[in-house]
Amino acid sequence: MEFTWFTLAIAATFCWGLSDVFFKKGTNPTDKYSHLRILIMIGLMMGIHAVVELQKLNWQYDIKNIISYFPVSFLYILSMAIDFYGYRYLLISVGSPVASTSGAIAGILSFKVLDKTMSGWQFFAVSLITLGLILLAVLEKKEANRESLKNSAQIDKKNKIGAAALLFPIFYAILDGVGTFLDDVYLSKYFTPEEALISFELTFCIVALISLFYIIVVKKQGYKLVDEKYNIYGGLFETAGQFFYVYALNSNSVVAAPLMSIDSIVAVIFGRIYLKEKLTKEQYFTIIMITI
Asked: Any stretches that span the bilayer, and where are they (predicted)?
């Protein structure tokens, strides 16, 4: 079966939405290394997949590509680390729509810098996203203040952070948006989708091994695969999403990037069903506005 850029983008969207939910499920709010545990599992999964891709190419791959592609890999991995750290403080139903605005950022950059087309409707959509982000920050601040009043005698760390927790997915959106734009440039001029995918996955695998060494040897923390069940599921879906994403971006970046941002819809739906997250009517309205 031949995939179009649209079906590839939808497949990536579905996989990433599910990965977000599993990573949130596997995040322990009291474990300050939980974001590293997620990175480790993604890196290991991607390392395995990189070997599969190399075999498909009969190992015809220039290892120097890892260095050439590093700026893109660095932005992607850093943005993910920041976003995963924020999982300790934000509902996936709130954080995911904010983080997913990276697609709009990438679309704007491709439109402005690479002279790719964008309609008036797409500009209107960006305005809705910007307004939605502001409203979501205001609502999160109000919710934090309300919780603080309820628990004035014992305010937990999550409530102390309050609306500032939104900085995690916002930073993710900016870094990932710029990374997606650079990815578009690389795929347009320098790399094939296979070379880009392998370069990113090998870099992520290296980061995973360094993180694993840091947790076990430096910080002397336990790491058992039996305790990483949800991160394993998330790593599988994240890797599958990356595979579909590269080919979708290579085919039609200015439309595919914003389209793949709707992975937040998948995350919100499953976050509500599977994680039993509860949102106010105002938060639902704002999230709907962002996803529209």
From this structure: 6-23, 35-54, 66-82, 121-140, 161-182, 197-218, 230-248, 254-275
Q: How far is CA 49 from the centre of its chain?
A: 19
d(CA 169, CA 238): 17
> Could you tell me the residue range of the domain that residue 149 belongs to?
5-291
Q: Please, where are the H alpha helices in the chain? A: 5-26, 34-56, 65-68, 70-86, 92-99, 102-113, 120-150, 157-161, 167-189, 193-213, 229-251, 253-260, 263-273, 281-291
CA-CA distance, 180 to 188, in Å (whole number)? 12
- pTM above threshold 0.70: yes
Nearest Cα to Cα of residue 291 among 270, 275, 268, 271: 268
C-alpha angle 175-179-181 in degrees, rounded to nearest 5: 120
Which residues are CB-contacts of 195 (< 8 A; sequence separation ≥ 6)?
Answer: 61, 62, 65, 69
The structural domain count of the chain equals 1
Contacts with 181 (C-beta within 8 Å, 6 or more apart), sequence order: 105, 106, 109, 110, 113
